[in-house]
Amino acid sequence: MRDTQVTVIGGGAAGMTAAITAAQSGADTVLIEHMDRVGKKLLSTGNGKCNFTNLKQDLSWYRGENPAFVLPVFAQFGQKETFAFFETIGIYPKVKNGYCYPASGQASSVLDALRMECAYQGVETVTSCALWSVEKSKNGYRIGTDKGAFFTTSLIFATGLLAAPKTGSDGSAIPYIEGLGHHFIDIVPALVQLQGKQSFFKSVAGIRADCEVTLFVENEQICSETGELQLTGFGISGIPVFQLSRFATKALFQKKEVHTSLNFLPELLPSQAFTLMQKRFRQNGHGKNAAEALIGLFPKKLIDVFLAESRISRDMPAADVRLAALQRLSETVRAIRVDVIASRGMEAAQVCAGGVDTREVDNETLESKFAKGVYFAGEVLDIDGACGGYNLQWAWSSGHVAGIHAAERAKQSAPRKRGTS
Question: pLDDT digits over 2-24, tens only?
Fold first, then answer.
């Protein structure tokens, strides 16, 4: 059995940060990862560019049963401290509209810098190491793995949940966390595409358009997001969809009726949209049919959907379309209904909503209230962020806070040396 002061389970963004911080604080630290290498999920963040934080920081970007749980954590290690930390390991930010990327434009450089810092700080990294058991002992925890047993004074779970299981977040640590007395808020996909039941999706697949997406649950408006919508063969995608997806998947999990309304003229009021249609069909519709009157305003594939939903024949002369029909058309382009039947699942999700109930965790130290010496960091907790670097900011911040407090607790205990017992 190998003895150590701090053991981190999970080699993702939060886990590596926790291990680096614990080691910097003087604790003998081991990082256990069940994949063949650390940081696989990090490589896919920001479309491979790693949007590692965002200059816009306030509570509205974070979600969970108790989003305010993040505040004491960010007070200890926030966005400014994140910049400072990354500069010390060679990552300088390139900022665009508040989004912060490494100057290299490569997520791999962030991972390489973290791996090098782990090595420099003396973190022992054990990969391809499957977790078998976690047991409380007199002065810490015994961790059973297929590479032998570890005894540790402080234990940090930074295992993620279920999103993108091919990168290592497969939920395999959940039973061990529950075994310590913890409960999980329902885990559902977040930052994920949504599937619709309408028949027109195959005909409009591949279209991108600026759009306001409004989410309704049981016909009650929940939230709205504006940005570039992506239409697919199965439904809707793009940043505005990702931003509201966690609310949709929560409602679907609860067997509630969910739909979205797509507004393809988000900059116009209803009266302005009607005026625009009159102008295009009457003033500028000479010699055109209904479909041709909309060319230049919308992608061609969408025009057929709008006309069909408005009960207007595409071949009807534009000048012959009645005002009542133009009123329907102006309403349709501002409110295409999509009945949401599912998300694309954990395999497509960037993160999860749900996780360890934050009421069971100290929000200053991230230590378990049930199992002293156990800490949590990152996505495993019931905190998820909006798209735009917020989930990584939570990973860095919670990893740092868990790491420093786990190290402090371990050093206050009887000193131990790594070895075999």
Answer: 899 999 999 999 999 999 999 99
CA distance 232 to 82: 36
DSSP bridge pairs for 375: 156, 367
Q: Residue 202 and residue 125: Cα distance in Å, rounded?
A: 47
Strands, sheet with 99-102, edge to edge from the N-terminal-most edge strand: 53-54, 99-102, 93-96
Crossing angle, helix 107-120 and helix 13-24, to 10 degrees? 30
* Contact between residue 240 and residue 213 where contact means Cβ atoms under 8 Å apart: yes
Give phi and psi for 70, each to the nearest 5.
Answer: -75, -20
Provide the β-strand partners of residue 247: none
CB 201 within 8 A of CB 233: yes
| Alpha-carbon span 374 to 366, nearest angstrom | 8
Residue (of 391, 351, 399) closest to 51 by Cα position: 391
**pLDDT given for residue 418 in this prediction:** 46
Interior angle at CA 7, CA 6 and CA 9, nearest 5: 150
> Which SS3 state, helix, strand or coil, does residue 294 take?
coil
Any residues with CB less than 8 A from the CB of 118 and at least 6 apart, and which? 16, 19, 20, 23, 31, 38, 125
Residue type, 235: G
For CA atoms 16, 21, 24, 25, give the dihedral sign. Answer: negative
Pairing of strands 29-32, 2-9: parallel
Distance CA 100, CA 77 (A): 17
> And the tokens for 338?
């999509």
Between β-strands 99-102 and 93-96, what pairing exists: parallel, antiparallel or unpaired?
A: antiparallel
Measure the CA–CA gap between 200 and 299, rounded to whole angstroms.
14
The pLDDT confidence band at residue 415, using thresholds 50, 70 and 90, is: low
Give pLDDT, residue 66: 98
Q: Which amino acid does the sequence have at 227?
A: G
If 0-12 CB within 10 Å is exposed, 13-18 middle and 19+ buried, where does residue 112 land? Answer: middle
CA quadruple 38, 40, 46, 52: dihedral, nearest 10: -10
State the residue for tokens 């002061």.
Answer: 5
pTM above 0.90, yes or no: yes
> pLDDT tens for residues 127-180?
999 999 999 998 999 999 999 999 999 999 999 999 999 999 999 999 999 999
Asked if 247 contacts 217 with a C-beta cutoff of 8 angstroms, the reply is yes
Cα–Cα–Cα angle for 379, 385, 386, rounded to 5 degrees: 145
